[in-house]
Amino acid sequence: MSLSPDHIPADLLPVMEALTRVGREVAGIIARGALGASLSEEVGENSDGDGQKALDVMADEMFEAALRDTAVRYYASEEQEGVPRPWHREICAGD
Questions:
Q1: Over the range 48-65, which residues count as b (16 or more CB within 10 Å of their CB) and which as e?
Q2: Every domain of the chain and the residues it spans
Q3: Is the dihedral of CA 83, 86, 92, 95 positive or negative?
Q4: Vertex 61, ends 9 and 65: CA angle to 5°?
Q5: How much is the pLDDT for 91?
Q6: For the chain: N or C, fewer Cβ within 10 A?
Q7: What is the DSSP letter of 51?
Q8: What's the confidence (pLDDT) of residue 3?
């Protein structure tokens, strides 16, 4: 699905496309089920002390990578430690 740029600011369109693309990719991973290790297996602990599931960490890494080359300046996530440092531009994203 392609987004129409008619009423979307130019810097926001690539962000929305990246989010929807990764969302579809994560949905595909979930639909295929676990390959090897379980996606619901705890693989660590987040900054709040909650157990991190393999799928949470994988999705977080995918979203961060997809947004890095967009106008997003900060990316914050409960799956990561510490305060985010600015990447480069204007828009903020986080979960």
A1: eeeebbbbbbbbbebbbe
A2: 13-28+39-94
A3: negative
A4: 40
A5: 55
A6: N
A7: E
A8: 55
Return d(Cα 53, Cα 64) in angstroms, integer.
17
- Report the pLDDT value the prediction gives residue 26, as an integer from 0 to 100: 92
Tokens standing for residue 79: 């799956």
* Max CA pair span of the chain: 44
Q: Can you give the C-alpha Rg of the chain in angstroms? A: 15
Name the token pair of 39: 């996606």
pTM score, whole prediction = 0.76
pLDDT in tens, 40-72: 788 888 777 888 888 999 999 999 999 998 988
